[in-house]
Structure formats: C-alpha cells, structure tokens
Amino acid sequence: MDITRNEYGKPSDLTRSAPLLCSLICLLSSPGTYAAAWDINPQVTVQEVYSDNIELAPDGQEEGDFVTELTPAVSLEGRGMRYRVNVDYGLQGLIYADDSSRNRINNLLTGDGQLEVFRDHGFIDFGVNYGPQNVGNVGTVALDNISAVGRANVLSYSVTPNWVHEFGNYAVANVGYTYDEVVSSSDDLTDSSAHTVTANIHNGSHFETWLWSLDFLEQYVDDEAFGDTIRFRNVTGRTDYYFTPHWAAIGQLGYDDDDFDSEGDTSDVLWGVGFRWAPRRQTFIEVIGGERFFGKTFSAQAEHTSRRIRFVANYTEEPTSVRTTVLRNTAFPVLDPFGQPIINPVTGQPQQLNVLTPVETGEVVINKSFNAFGTYTGRYHDFALGFTRYELDYQLTGDSEESMGPNAAWTWRFTPTARSRLGIQYIDEEFRTGDESQYTIVDLALTRQFGRGLEASIGARYFNRDSSGAVPEYQENRAFLLLVKTF
C-alpha cells in the first residue's frame, strides 16, 4: 500500500498524522512507561458474506456477490503511574468472488491516551481515528465497508496539553489547548483543522449547597476549501443553589462573540434559568431555558439507573461546524444509541452506522439534537429502545436539515454459550434540498461460543432506502457466516 500518495493524488492521510505519532512516541518513551503492565489482545475475524446488491444499486441494476473478509486485529492497553493508552488496530482484507477489481484492504485505527507530565497538574491527552467513512448523506450511503461503494478514508486526530490546579478545597481550575485535524482521501470531504483554547474554574468540595463554575472557550476553524476562518468565542458562568437536598435552582449568564458568515448577529449576551431534581443518587432531571444570539434556547437531561433498568435522555442546542460531525466519527465506534457496545453481525466489528453525516459545507449550523434510550437487563433477555432526532439550521443560507427515528434491540441468551440478537432501526431524513430518505434496517444473528476465545455467528440483514427527488434508493439483503478468534 502506498502511504505517500493515494488514488485521489492527495497526500496520504497516514503521512499527515506525524504530529500525533510524535506525541504517541513521546508518551511511550516517557519515564515510568515500562514500569506498568501492557495488555495485548490479538484477534482474527473470518467471515463469508453474500449480498444480493453489493453496490447498493437501484431496482433492476442489482448485482449479487460473495465476499470473504479476513481481519487480523490487535487491541493494546497500557496503564502506568503517569500514563494510560488504548489503541485498536485492524487490517481488513475484502475479497469479492465475482469482481476482483473490488478487492481492497482497509486500515482501521482508533486510540486515545493521557500522559501526566507534571504530577497532579500537567497532562497531555491525545485521540486518533482512521478508516473509511461516508462523505455525506445524499449519495449512496453504506452501513459498513463490505458494500462496494465509494467511501473516503478519513483521518482525525487531536492533541491536548492541559494544566489542572486545585485551590485547597475551594476551587479547581483547568486550562487547555487543543489542536485537531480532519484529513480525507476524497475531494468531497475537504481537509480542516482547529485551534481551541479552554479555561474552567469551578467550586471545590468546600461548597455543598452552592455550586458554581466559569467556562471560557475560543476556537478557530480553518477549512482548506472554504477559505474563511470560523471563530467561536464564549464565556459562561453558572450557579446551582440547592435549597433542599434534592432540588436546585440553576442560573446561567455569559456572552457569545462569534465570527462567521450569517444572516444575523453572531454576538450577544446569553442567559438561562432552570432547575435540577435529584430524588436519589442514580436519578435526576435537569431543565434550562434561556436565550442566545440565534434565539430562544432549551436544554434538558434526565437519567435513571436501577439494578435492571437504565434510562437516559438529553436535548441540546449549540452552534457548531459540520466538520465536528466527521471529527466525532470513529473507525471502531464504542457505544450504540443504547449506551452499550454493539457488534455488527455482518462484519463482526462495532457498527459503523454514520449514515447521518451531512454533506460538508463551510457554514456554521445550529445543531438541535435529542437522544433518548432505555434498557432492561433480565436473566435471559435484554431489551433496548431508543429514539434520535437532530435538526441542523444553516446560518448563512437559512436552510435546515432534519433526521429522526426509533431503534430497538432484543437479545436472548437461551443457553450459557448461545444467544440471539434482533435489531430494528428506522430513520426519516429530510435534506436541505427538500428531498427525503427513509432507512429501514433489520439485523438478526445467532451466536455460539466454542471454547475459550472462539465465537461463531450466522445471520442476515435487510437494508432498504426509500427516497424522493435525486437521492438514490435501493434495497439489500445479506446472509453471513462469521468466526471470531481471540487469543
């Protein structure tokens, strides 16, 4: 594999990651690194997949194909007195029986870590992700790397030195700087970088009924395609006053001083008032209403945890850039909408369902997002039910984009070594062009453990996209047999 140039003629993503790799080398060679245990877990995934529409083509143009996947992977975890590091890497090889021109190798990488430079005060955090992603939600969208459609290799990484200082038990202060970058192999997703300075000071343990915090953020975003630099600048103070052990009044006051293309003013005073109710340690509800430069705002959080039931819901409104969505995608997503690790039954790897990645634009958007999920864990059966909705309001053109839909999953452990999983998801998406798409995804898998470290699965998936306008629509059915060996 050529790691200096790619098929698009742009510099390879891997060669652009030098700053992060240098940070990782410094972390691994720091004093005390070898004084702690390192945990290395190799794994090999082998599977055979049959798809009746391998290229996700429209009705009447479908082509079926058998795909063989071989993915050796390794998980590296290290923890010492002054550092921690977690890295997962997989080399995914895909062989297509009917058309060898589709054969390819994908590098999958995700990692994060922290190095304590000055004891209890100075830290360096890093994060990295590399792998194929969808570059937008309007064209042909794949759920994973097996579908033979265009997906761009995207590298995102960040490095954050920060300083923490405690003022006795009265206050804790944190100052940090983050550099992050998104680099893509496709011209459809342009390269961008950001410089972010954050500062926070909040109450220490001395305060019990009156909690307070002061936050500052300044971020500059540079996008190679759109030229103009976006600036976010915000300072916010917050106070929570507990007039009973379970009820608190919340007040917020601050100022937005942003600089980006918009039809309206991007700088103004912000404020908010609300309450927090926490009847027990694992249960709370928080609601805040107020105003920012883009209008009235509302945020809410709720959580309840018991021995078998967990429920979490949150709603937020914030100005951001589209690149932030790409930056949050990972080659190995950790959690699903239910807050639990999930495995795609077709690939054997954590699901890469980033179908909601908007088409990149240099505009700032107001992201209004709502997520809710509930889980029930029984002796033999686990149930999960969730709902997601987001709305993007583009600040220059005035366009909007929406996506919403429920999802559910049922896991049945019918023997100590065997289980089944049924997952259903529906997504209704409305693009800024006025076109719409509806996704229906049904996954079914039966899994059996054979001794220590060997697991086999058999299953199927139904994937359907109905659309309007120029947005493509297609349907795919899959069957698979999967073996995963962990050493």
Describe the structure.
With 487 residues, the chain is mainly β. The chain has one domain (14-486): Maltoporin, Chain A (Beta Barrel). Helix content is 3%, strand content 61%. It contains two helices and 22 strands. The chain has a 22-stranded antiparallel β-barrel. Strand 20 (436-449) and strand 21 form a beta hairpin. The chain is globular. Residues 1-15 and 331-353 have low confidence and may be disordered.
Key attributes of the depicted protein:
487 residues; mainly beta; 22-stranded antiparallel beta barrel; disordered N terminus; Maltoporin, Chain A
Compute the average pLDDT.
84
CATH-level-2 architecture: Beta Barrel
Uncertain regions spanning at least 5 consecutive residues: 1-15, 331-353
- Number of domain modules: 1
Gross geometry: globular
Q: How many separate helices?
A: 2
Described by strand count, sense and barrel closure, the largest sheet is: 22 strands, antiparallel, barrel
Q: Which structural category fits the helices and strands?
A: mainly beta
Helix content: under 10%
The top-level CATH class is: Mainly Beta
How many strands appear in the DSSP assignment?
Answer: 22
Specify Rg, calculated over alpha carbons.
Answer: 24 Å
**Secondary-structure element order, N to C:** HEEEEEEEEEEEEEEEHEEEEEEE
How large is the share of residues in beta strands? over 45%
